[in-house]
Amino acid sequence: MQRIPILQMGKCLLVTIQVDLQDQTALALQDDLSAKIEATGAHGVLIDISALEIVDSFIGRMLAGISGIARVLDATTVVVGMQPAVAITLVELGLSLEGVRTALNVERGMQMLRDAAVEDSRDATG
Amino acid sequence: MTLPAEGSMVLATEQDIVMSRQTVRKLTQQINFSLVDQTKMITAASELSRNTVVYGGGGEMRWQVVTKEPKTGLRLAFEDKGPGIPDLTLALTDGWTSGKGMGVGLSGSRRLVNEFDIRTAVGEGTCVTITRWK
């Protein structure tokens, strides 16, 4: 089975999904990311899905799952780069990706994670 | 490689779900579906292939390029010999799930296509047919 690589950049974890995801690969990514957040103490997770040609309910559930798990582990998740055709289909399918933060591209996603980190440190000191 | 206008493939494993998406992508591209139409049809095929593999215990996907002048479309049938669906109305309800999904598989894929037909009999199997016109 293929595994999706997870890169670390400072306090952020970066994932770029570039393969047609098998269900098991999606589940493995969820497990791997959870373990990696715990091991690194990362505060942010950025998932780039710009290469994904579809997001079906299984992948949608995986993205929502990662966001939820990360939140409990004190990390913010941002999903970036969704193609417009994928967004249209996703909404029509009936998936709202509730609780999943999204950004148009990697740059805006990174900015969101930085902002979230600043807010966190303010909360900690204030 | 060009795919024939009619054909079928086995749906037995998770890898077959990926294969069915790739097959439908190729077919929709061959008949020049727009990107949004391609994406909708591939997503619907992904949901229904997964149902066939996970709930139906495997089966097959048949495809057919159909024409109703002046329209061209793609028809897909997903058939299994699994347990069937006891309560179809319930299964077609948004948010209903047998536990493994988000409850949008059947109802959601129905919204992604122009024609949707489902035949099911408890103990005999299920066949879902979808058509999307260009």
Distance between the termini of chain B: 22 Å
CATH topology of chain B: Heat Shock Protein 90
Number of strands of chain B: 5
What general form of chain A does the structure show? globular
Content of β-strand of chain B? 25-35%
- The number of distinct helices of chain A, counting runs of at least 4 residues, comes to 4
Describe this structure in words.
The complex is a heterodimer of chains A (126) and B (134). Chain A has 126 residues and is of the alpha/beta class. Chain A has one domain: 2-Layer Sandwich (Transcription Regulator spoIIAA). Chain A contains 4 helices and 5 strands. Chain A has helices at residues 23-40, 57-72, 84-93, 106-125; strands spanning 6-9, 12-16, 44-48, 76-80, 101-103. A 5-stranded mixed sheet of chain A has the order 1-2-3-4-5, with helices on both faces. The N and C termini of chain A lie far apart (46 Å). The mean pLDDT of chain A is 93. Chain B has a single domain (6-133), classed as Histidine kinase-like ATPase, C-terminal domain (Heat Shock Protein 90). The longest helix of chain B has 21 residues, at 35-55. Chain B has a 5-stranded antiparallel sheet, covered by helices on one side. The model of chain B has no long low-confidence stretch (mean pLDDT 92). Chain B has helices at 14-30, 35-55, 88-91, 105-111, and strands at 6-11, 59-68, 71-80, 115-121, 125-133. The radius of gyration of chain B is 14 Å and the shape is globular. Chain B is α+β, with helices and mostly antiparallel strands and 134 residues long. Chain B is built from 4 helices and 5 strands, in the order βααββααββ. The A-B interface holds A 20-24, 53-58, 60-61, 83-86, 88-90, 92-95 and B 14-15, 17-18, 21-22, 25, 35-36, 38-40, 42-43, 46-47, 50, 94, 101-102, 104-105, 107-109, 111-112.
